[in-house]
UniProtKB/TrEMBL annotation:
Leader sequence residues: none
GO biological process, one term: regulation of G protein-coupled receptor signaling pathway
Family: Belongs to the phosducin family.
Pfam families according to UniProt: Phosducin
Protein name: Phosducin domain-containing protein
Domain Phosducin positions: 29-170
Domain of life: Eukaryota
Length: 182
């Protein structure tokens, strides 16, 4: 007895497959690494189109920093309550995390779209070794409009971008405080 097997592929799937085979550029677009590289390049291009001094400050803050330093960039708008709250929280966190570089940039000066300025802020970009390792937009969806520095700290610790200070042994805390006072 012979068995017959029939597999069926939708016309849409066939068309996608054909398009990928025929167009190597489309295959590149579907690559996640390509999308991340494109996002970084697009951010640099947007900064070039606006104020050149802001562009260089932003890029220097990331590219000229030591590779072990984590850089947290807050993209904000002055007229958004959650952005003002985030700025206050980050000022407090920079006192706790002296080995983390905290920066802030106004979205309208960085060439962000009007939709991003209205709906995407507050946003945090986190860089390490010049690479984007965290990208969080519209943080008010997760944190609300009225949050505390501890909430932001917990959020960044939860995503592995800040060290959990509560897990640092007391001996290490005392030793680092002694060396800071020298």
């Amino acid at each position: 007895m012979k068995k017959l097997t029939l597999t069926v592929q939708s016309a849409l799937d066939e068309e996608r497959e054909r398009a990928v085979l025929e167009d190597p550029e489309l295959a590149d677009l579907l690559n996640d690494k390509f999308l991340l590289d494109y996002q970084k390049q697009r951010m640099k291009e947007m900064l070039l189109q606006t104020n050149p001094s802001i562009k260089f400050e932003f890029l220097d803050a990331i590219d000229k920093e030591h590779k072990t330093v984590t850089i947290i960039v807050h993209i904000y708008e002055d007229n958004v309550e959650a952005c003002r709250t985030m700025n206050t929280c980050l000022i407090q966190l920079c006192k706790l995390y002296v080995n983390v570089k905290f920066c802030a940039i106004v979205g309208s000066r960085a060439g962000m779209s009007s939709q991003f300025k209205a709906d995407g802020v507050p946003a945090l970009l986190v860089y390490k070794s010049g690479n984007l390792v965290g990208n969080f937009i519209r943080l008010s969806d997760d944190l609300g409009n009225d949050f505390q520095p501890e909430d932001v700290q917990d959020y960044l610790v939860e995503h592995g971008l800040l060290e959990d200070k509560s897990c640092t042994p007391l001996l290490v805390k005392v030793t680092s405080q002694d060396s800071d006072s020298d």
